[in-house]
Amino acid sequence: MNLKLYEFYDGKGGATILIALAIIFLVGFALSRITKLLRLPNVTGYILSGVLIGPFVLDLIPHNIIDNISFLSDLALGFIAFGVGKFFKKDVLKATGIKVVIITTLEALAAGILVTLVVGIAFPSMGWSFALLLGAIATATAPASTMMTINQYNAKGEFVNTLLQVVALDDVICLLVFSIVTAIVQGTDVGTMNVWNIILPIIYNILFIVIGFVGGIILSYLVKGRSANSKLIIAVGIICVISGSCILLDISPLLSCMVFGATYINITQDEKLFKYVDHFDPPIMLLFFVVSGMNMDLSAFATIGLIGIIYFIVRIAGKYFGAWAGCKITKRDNKTTNYLGFALIPQAGVAIGLAFLGQRMLPEDIGNTFLSVILCSSVLYEMCGPILAKFALIRSGAISKEMLLDSKSKKKDVIDNVAAQHVDVARIENIHLEDNNVKSEEIQATDKVVIKPSHVVHK
After folding, report:
1. Residue 431: φ, ψ to 5°
2. What is the pLDDT of residues 359-383, one digit of tens each?
3. Residue 452: which residues within 8 A CB-CB, separation 6 or more?
4. Is the pTM of this model over 0.70?
C-alpha cells in the first residue's frame, strides 16, 4: 500500500522520533488488547501492529528510524539470555533429572536437524547457511499459549509436570545450538574454508563466556546492600556493555549474557533482580516485536510461500517425533509419549530475536526471506498452539471431563505472561524425583501465577 503517512511529521528532529515512538507504543498496546480477547499472546499483537504501521501498509514510521533502532534486537536478546540464565541453578538442574534433559534435547534437535536437511535439500539455491540457521531456530519453543490452556482448564498430572520441565529447558538448548551454528556460518560465509574463519568466532564466544562469568561475579559484589533501583541500573548497564561488545566482534550476546545471569543466580540465589529486570524490559520488548513486524517483507510472500509451508510442517513433525522418541527412551507413560509433542508447537519470542541475528549473516534478499519465514510462521504457531495444546491435554487425561464441562459455564482467567516476562519459559523450582517419577511440588509459570499439580493460586 505504501501510503507514506510518516511524511506528515518527518524531518522535525527530536519531535519526529518522539512521535514515532508514541505511535509504536500506542498501536502496539491497542493491537495486543485485541489479540488478548482472542486469547493470543501479546507478541502476536505486537507483530501485527508492526505490519500495520510498517512500510507495506500505512507506512507511519520514517524508514531511517526503523533502520536506526535495529540495535534493539541485540539488546532484547541480551535481556532474554540473562533471564534464561536463572534456570541454570545447580539445585534445579539436579532436580530436573537426566530424563527431562534427554526428552528436551531430542525434541529440540530432531526439529532442528529435520528442518535443516529438508530445507537444504529442497531449496539448494538458498544455501546451507540459510538451512542451518533456520534449523537452529526451529529448536525453540514458546509455551505462553500452552500455559494459558493449562491455567484455563486447571490441567494437572505427570503430563503437565513433564511439559513444564521440558519447556523450561527448551530455549536453553536453542540458545546453545544457535551459538554453535552462527560460529560455523560466520566461519564459512567468506567463500573459503580457511580454518581461522571457523576458529575465531568460536574463540570469541569462549572469551565472552568468560566475560559473562566475570560479569556475574562483579554484579554479585556491586549490588550488595543496594536498593532495588540501583541493582536494576547496574544489571542493565552490564547487559548493555556485554551486548555492545559482542556487536563489535559480530557475535551473538546470547551465551555471554546467559552465563552472566547463571553466574549471578548461583552466587547470590537472588531471584528478585530478575524480577526487577522483568518489570523494566516490557517497553523494550514491545519496541522489538513491533519493529520485527515492520521489517516483515510482505512483498516476499510469494517467494517464501513454499519454504514457509515446509518449515511450518517439518518443524511440527520434528518436535512431535523427537518428543515421542525421548519419552520412549526415558520410559514415560503412553499418554505422555503420544501427546507431549503436540504441546511443544508454539514459537515466538526467542525465535524472533534469533531471526534478526540470522538475517544479518545472510545476503540481503535471502536474509529478508529468512526473517519473513520466521515471523509469519511464529504468528501461525501462536494461533494453532492453544488448539493443539488443548487436544494434547485432553487426550493425555491432564484435563478432566469435569473441568472441560465447567469451563463452558464458568469463565476462567488466562495468563498474559509475554508482556510481563521476556522469556517464554516456565520457572521450575523444588522438583523432587521419587521412584523414577518426577513430581513437582511447585512450578512457577510467571511472576503472577503459580501453577501447582493440584490447583492454581494467584498471588
Report:
1. -100, 130
2. 888 888 888 888 888 878 877 786 6
3. 156, 440, 441, 442, 443
4. no
